[in-house]
Design a protein that fits this description.
The protein is α+β, with helices and mostly antiparallel strands and 303 residues long. It contains 9 helices and 5 strands. Strand 4, helix 9 (276-292) and strand 5 (298-300) form a beta-alpha-beta unit. The chain is elongated.
């Protein structure tokens, strides 16, 4: 029951935050992010994940302070031992006492410098690690050129939707589309213009789709849209709206006379689809039919 779980997790997270139970709060936010993802609430899931990272960073800072206090205590203990040694040798010759005091001072200075370097190294390492993890998560889920979801992220979402379909009969549909004559655009105007065309196609697609829909780039000029809760007729209507939105995007500023259209294949999940590959194969077949019929059109696959 993910919806009920999300509400209870939000209540639990608020209590853990009020009582400053940071480890429990981090676990709660992790669970909330996964539940929100399961519900298709990408924005809420990202917010929960970012909150979890902030809590984890706070826990790390607390650990660093504890480590610093521990190092300070060890240093103070070492200093006391040195002081005791100096007191024991007070009866020795004055010259040796002065030499030993100087040596102790050098040791203390070295320890302080070493402790400072260790603390700085720990802070820099944790900062770099945090940035790498954040960058890795973002790169794994997002296509760097268009800002759409990555193929890996889309396949994870599609696999989850397939599991929900087989377990609970939660209907959904997919759109597979690509830019018509894209190779000609690249060959005639260069890959830089081709990249800009793809970016504008993705921007127009996001504007035409619903907030709950997942747009992903799965190939060079090929995109996938996952439509949660959409039956074939609704998916075909959304596909037509998307096609018209892309066709209306101005491209003249990139190259004189340049325009872009897309062909779209639509498929609704069916009982015979045992995995994402079967569903995508039907959508691909519809896409090829759209291209064969003249491009810049929508073709729906039979259920």
């Amino acid at each position: 029951q993910p919806a009920a779980a999300a509400e209870r997790l939000q209540t639990a997270c608020a209590r853990f935050e009020a009582t400053q139970s940071l480890p429990l709060l981090a676990q709660c936010l992790d669970a909330l992010a996964r539940v929100q993802t399961a519900l298709g609430r990408i924005t809420q899931a990202l917010a929960a994940r970012e909150a979890q990272l902030r809590v984890t960073a706070s826990i790390d800072r607390n650990m660093q302070r504890e480590q610093a206090l521990l190092l300070t205590g060890e240093f103070q203990s070492s200093q006391r031992e040195l002081d005791n040694l100096r007191l024991q040798r007070e009866t020795e010759r004055q010259q040796r006492q002065l030499q030993e005091a100087a040596r102790h001072e050098r040791v203390r200075t070295g320890l302080l410098a070493l402790m400072a370097l260790v603390l700085i190294g720990i802070l820099l390492y944790q900062r770099r690690t945090f940035r790498r993890l954040r960058s890795a998560r973002r790169d794994a889920a997002t296509d760097s050129l268009t800002g759409a979801a990555s193929r890996r992220h889309a396949m994870d979402v599609l696999q989850r939707f397939m599991s929900q379909w087989h377990a609970q009969a939660r209907v959904f549909s997919v759109l597979v589309f690509d830019a018509d004559h894209f190779k000609t655009i690249n060959d005639s105007h260069g890959h830089a213009v081709g990249d800009r065309v793809l970016q504008r196609v993705a921007t127009a697609a996001r504007a035409a789709l619903r907030d709950s829909d997942v747009l992903a780039r799965i190939g060079g000029e090929e995109f996938l849209v996952i439509l949660q809760g959409a039956q074939l007729e609704q998916a075909a209507a959304l596909a037509e709206r998307l096609r018209a939105a892309v066709q209306a995007v101005p491209m003249d500023d990139l190259a004189s006379g340049l325009g872009a259209t897309i062909s779209i294949g639509v498929a609704q999940v069916a009982e015979a689809d045992r995995g994402p590959e079967a569903l995508l194969a039907r959508a691909d077949a519809a896409l090829y039919q759209a291209k064969a019929e003249g491009r810049n059109r929508v073709v729906a696959a039979r259920r």
